[in-house]
Amino acid sequence: MSYAIVWEAKATGMLSRFLDDPKGAAAVLDAVDRLSQDPRPASAFPYGDVDRRLRVGRYRVWYAIDDQVKEVHVAYVDRV
Questions:
Q1: Record's InterPro entries (predicted)?
Q2: Which one of 36, 43, 45, 67 is most buried, counting C-beta atoms within 10 A?
Q3: Number of C-alpha atoms within 13 angstroms, CB side, residue 2?
Q4: Is-contact 43 32, C-beta < 8 A?
């Protein structure tokens, strides 16, 4: 069963700041989309009990998984 992707307002706003790097932003969107099929990929690191951090090139995505309702909540996106 796939998970729904829920973008928090802060994460959406942060991603919009990276329009100067369309390839990087597209890579982030693709990686987040893949979380709907595999919310715990090997490339994501645990960050607390339910939170995880995913590295996508020079970007980092922090998200939480809600297994009860099958949702991935993208909370934060930043560029290193």
A1: RelE/ParE_toxin_dom_sf
A2: 36
A3: 9
A4: no
